[in-house]
Amino acid sequence: DIQMTQSPSTLSASVGDRVTISCRASQSISSWLAWYQQKPGKAPNLLIYKASSLESGVPSRFSGSGSGTEFTLTISSLQPDDFATYYCQHYNSYPLTFGGGTKVEIK
Amino acid sequence: EVQLVESGGGLVQPGGSLRLSCAASGFTFSDHYMDWVRQAPGKGLEWVARIRKKGNSYSTEYAASVKGRFTISRDDSKNSLYLQMDSLKSEDTAVYYCVRAAVVVPAAFDYWGQGTLVTVSS
């Protein structure tokens, strides 16, 4: 099974900050990586697919990069609506697996 | 508008069974692979099962933690997805989400239902 490791697990930041979340796969997944945002009590929402493609309707302050085993989600200027938990997920092979999540908190 | 609406969750005793349903609307259901993803209280996301479309013989995949106990199925004539859960364990307690995979595979999960809570407890 491919293990997905996110860091950090918690991140404290202020509105306007540039935020970077890392995701590492235990083996190469090419670019078959997605990023999701989840707010408390709600279902996750797709932000990025194929490592760097922005899902329709998602603000352009979100971007993704990487390939192989190292990936990054960047929020260029953190907004109040962005305080949430973020998950990476590979869809290269079965089982599909998620990272443990990164909670972005208000500093 | 794409909608995925789960139902069938509730309280069940260990060893019991439960069947979840997901009603889909707003898109051509038969064109998509469909999945179930769960989230235990206060925990992260765990993929549970996938069913492919008719052109892929409705083939299925399961997480090791549920293989042999859970069965995913679909009825394209009713735009519905199902998850039959047998021999339930306390560790199956979670919110279960019905999820659509984007039409071009390999695919990320582009739409999620609101989830239905399954509690396994005596």
Structure characterization notes:
- The complex is a heterodimer of chains A (107) and B (122).
- Chain A has 107 residues and is an all-beta fold.
- Chain A contains no helices and 11 strands.
- In chain A, the strands form 2 sheets. In chain A, strands 2, 4, 5, 6, 9, 10 and 11 form a 7-stranded mixed beta sheet that branches. Chain A has a 4-stranded antiparallel beta sheet with strand order 1-3-8-7, with no helix packed on it.
- In chain B, the strands form 2 sheets. In chain B, strands 2, 4, 5, 6, 9, 10 and 11 form a 7-stranded mixed beta sheet that branches.
- Chain B starts with a strand and ends with a strand.
What keywords describe this structure?
heterodimer, A: 107 residues, mainly beta, seven-stranded mixed beta sheet, four-stranded antiparallel beta sheet, 11 strands, B: mainly beta, 50% strand
Briefly say what this structure is.
The complex is a heterodimer of chains A (107) and B (122). Chain A is mostly beta strands and 107 residues long.
Distance between the termini of chain B: 40 Å
The percentage of residues in β strands of chain B lies in: over 45%
Q: H/E order of the elements of chain B? A: EEEEEEEEEEE
Mean pLDDT across all amino acids of chain B: 97
Number of strands of chain B: 11
Largest sheet of chain A: 7 strands, mixed
Write the layout of secondary structure elements.
The complex is a heterodimer of chains A (107) and B (122).
Chain A: E1 4-7, E2 10-13, E3 19-25, E4 33-38, E5 45-49, E6 53-54, E7 62-67, E8 70-75, E9 85-90, E10 97-98, E11 102-106
Parallel strand pairs in A: 2-11
Antiparallel strand pairs in A: 1-3, 3-8, 4-5, 4-9, 5-6, 7-8, 9-10, 9-11
Chain B: E1 3-7, E2 10-12, E3 18-25, E4 34-39, E5 45-51, E6 60-62, E7 70-75, E8 80-85, E9 94-101, E10 109-112, E11 116-120
Parallel strand pairs in B: 2-11
Antiparallel strand pairs in B: 1-3, 3-8, 4-5, 4-9, 5-6, 7-8, 9-10, 9-11
